[in-house]
Amino acid sequence: MASHPLDGNGHDTAVVVAHEIYGVNEHINGVAEMLSPYRCDVFTPSFLPSGVVYAREDEPRAYREFTRTPGVAGMGNALAQYTDGLRERYRRVLCIGFSVGATSTWLASGTGAVDGAVCFYGSRIRDHLDIQPAAPCLVIFAEQEPSFSVSAVTERLAGRKGVVTEVHPCRHGFCDPGSPHYCARHSRKAWTSATRFLGLPR
């Protein structure tokens, strides 16, 4: 699970970007680049076997292989272990996750493994509403999710200590420039919310 920060400037904040079913693809690397102006070290570990990266047209295979290993729970455990390993070097360890990476981030946040988290359209969070994040957590949803009611989930999360929800009138993947559902305007809005929520310094 090789992963290295984009820079080695001795920052006291680490940000781990948790990938989707495709692995550490151009979108995840792009997110890491977007974080480069901030005073933090960025990590993009792969939690897929051998660090495989799937093309978007291989979505069925990527989904099938992800559910086989590591799965959401397995990735959540691995992510918690990974962030815990950064504790000796950083004062703050933050996590930004997308899709399955967002649900894994949600699970990891419940263990106290991170000091702050942002979960972009983690649809399977609906299966883990019993989790209480131990640190501030921003959950960003796309309003148009075909597999579940976003309003029902946000209602369940309303009032949860340390949890903030934000819903954008878009479809799943709206922050990914490579997705057919990409929406530049709302991607920028969500990104601004994320960086402010995490208190990332420039």
TrEMBL record:
Domain Dienelactone hydrolase residues, every copy: 13-198
Signal peptide, first to last residue: none
Enzyme Commission number(s) from the entry: 3.1.-.-
InterPro entries, per the entry: AB_hydrolase_fold, Dienelactn_hydro, Dienelactone_hydrolase-like
Native organism taxonomy: Bacteria, Bacillati, Actinomycetota, Actinomycetes, Kitasatosporales
GO molecular function annotation: hydrolase activity
Protein name: Dienelactone hydrolase family protein
Organism (species): Streptomyces ehimensis
A Pfam match: DLH
Keyword Hydrolase attributed: yes
Enzyme class, UniProt record, top EC level: hydrolase
Alphabetized Gene3D superfamilies for the sequence: alpha/beta hydrolase (3.40.50.1820)
